[in-house]
């Protein structure tokens, strides 16, 4: 029984048992199985990229919730690079966050990108031509070729149930599968059963909230759900002094293959890949202005994955 | 001094003094003054529509925050109707929420609306032609004719500072100005100065958070910031049994001209306009499938505003 308590399986089971069930589970499973079968038959590697923050409702009929800041930019940029490197990507993303191939669009694309010069033909402003072409052509091509499957979530309950579905469906892909867990997952939540049904009244005085810890699913993912998959997790801190230490601890605790350590204020310029073979600093190419840190990060991760696949059979 | 304590002016001052200052205040003021001058010179009525939920950061270098659920659909639909009724609209909206003229677009417009048949010309799929035309032509026309000014916010600090700026800038518009406060504003927050700087560590055990009440700005808006403006506030509840009672209390307490009462589960079909002249139930037109509740709601509000303007001088 000792291994069970180490993994926290009891907590995990009770988390899932008390979660509100996914509304469209059959549709998700159907899409997933089709996508995985098509790609694994062709021998293609498959990565699940998670992206954006999860919400934690404070009321069952939810008006208020706790959220994690995450634009989804890392996950979107990484997805594009994985597709370019030949992978099929399951993009598990928070609704409303940054989408692959859409990072160069302005904040308000319908106000800024287009015009209707003669009431029938739409035209793209020259300044946004490349961005729109990428968002439409490259994205549609990736989806049409079954290289990209987009699955949205909002709450921590949806996220963890969908991650479990994906991991289970990917089991047979073995070492050719990867989890690249860039989503900002809530550490604390209000258990569904102890949550008030109605909107909390704003009567008088302060409001006290007690939040429980979300069980760490990473151990279960590694041990039970998808033990053969290559697994990358992320660690974000605002204090650079504790970042590498915390990433190293996460590497050991969850037995993932690498932890990408990033600090909030410099995360777009630099990350550190922490693994048992040492720490590697990854930056964008300073000579190329359009270069992003994910270009070099995904190159490194893909190399590591190749080594992992090669060594797996031996 | 008694009137000061009734209004809670002390709390309001200390809220603003401790708020992190707006980053682009000069730019906002410049845009606002231009927009208001242009429209008020022409004798046009001006409404400030607030839309979407405000966030409350839990850390100064914010990773986690509390948010209020709000799609922004009500504010966006109301904005379109106000423009149609001849108003100039200052749309104070939460970043990422529903935009005016964009409500009919699909969730993932760049994946679904367009195609590039020959690599140079973009085309809109017939099924989305009307939605895209509205998002581009109607929206651009409203902005170009200075009938729509869009100002984004994220946090409660940004929202309340911007609302004060707008109210102050609108003061001279007098009874021809309106506040239509559809945004879901946080009731509770962590005062900036008592907030931790770094990300809260997810060590062991539960997390306890104490939230203070956000001072009610509605009294100050009515009494100090824009006393001559016509003012509509909103009350959302999940429990229909307490809805009308709470809306009526808000009407009396904040001395607004009407409170739009809506229940979370039926808010798209029906609202109740609560005012000193009685309660009016407003629904969408059941014969017209494309009819929305805001069509009739704004018609009623505009009529009430006309009466208010007429009676103001007498």
From TrEMBL, chains A, B:
Q: Which InterPro entries match?
A: CoaB-like_sf, DNA/pantothenate-metab_flavo_C
Which top-rank group of organisms is this from?
Eukaryota
Pathway where this protein functions: Cofactor biosynthesis; coenzyme A biosynthesis; CoA from (R)-pantothenate: step 2/5
Give start and end of each DNA/pantothenate metabolism flavoprotein C-terminal domain: 46-92, 165-270
Which keywords describe this protein according to UniProt?
A: Coenzyme A biosynthesis, Ligase
**Its Gene Ontology biological processes?**
coenzyme A biosynthetic process
Q: Which GO terms describe its molecular function?
A: phosphopantothenate--cysteine ligase activity
Which protein family is named in the record?
Belongs to the PPC synthetase family.
Name this protein carries in UniProt: Phosphopantothenate--cysteine ligase 2 isoform X1
> Encoded by which gene?
LOC108839977
């Amino acid at each position: 029984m000792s291994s069970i308590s180490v993994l926290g399986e009891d907590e995990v089971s009770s988390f899932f048992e008390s979660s509100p069930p996914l509304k469209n589970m059959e549709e998700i499973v159907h899409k997933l199985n089709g996508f995985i079968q098509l790609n694994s038959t062709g021998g293609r590697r498959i990565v699940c990229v998670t992206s954006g923050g999860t919400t934690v409702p404070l009321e069952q009929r939810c008006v208020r919730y706790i959220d994690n800041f995450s634009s989804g930019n890392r996950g979107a940029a990484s997805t594009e690079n994985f597709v370019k490197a030949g992978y099929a990507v399951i993009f598990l993303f928070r609704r409303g966050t940054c989408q692959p191939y859409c990072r160069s669009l302005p904040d308000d694309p319908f106000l800024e990108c287009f015009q209707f010069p003669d009431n029938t033909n739409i035209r793209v402003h020259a300044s946004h031509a490349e961005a729109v072409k990428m968002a439409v052509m490259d994205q549609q091509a990736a989806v049409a070729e079954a290289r990209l499957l987009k699955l949205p979530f909002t709450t921590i309950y949806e996220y963890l149930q969908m991650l479990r579905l994906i991991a289970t469906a990917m089991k047979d892909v073995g070492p050719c599968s990867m989890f690249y867990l860039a989503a900002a997952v809530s550490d604390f939540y209000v258990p569904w059963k102890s949550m008030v049904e109605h909107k909390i009244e704003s009567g008088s005085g302060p409001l006290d909230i007690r939040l429980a810890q979300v069980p760490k699913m990473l151990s279960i993912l590694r041990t039970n759900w998808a033990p053969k998959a290559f697994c990358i997790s992320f660690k974000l801190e605002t204090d650079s002094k504790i970042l590498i230490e915390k990433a190293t601890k996460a590497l050991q605790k969850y037995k993932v293959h690498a932890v990408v350590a990033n600090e909030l204020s410099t995360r777009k310029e630099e990350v550190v890949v922490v693994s048992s073979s040492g720490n590697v600093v990854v930056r964008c190419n300073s000579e190329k202005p359009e270069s992003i840190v994910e270009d070099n990060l995904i190159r490194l991760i893909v190399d590591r994955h190749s080594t992992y696949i090669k060594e797996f059979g031996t």
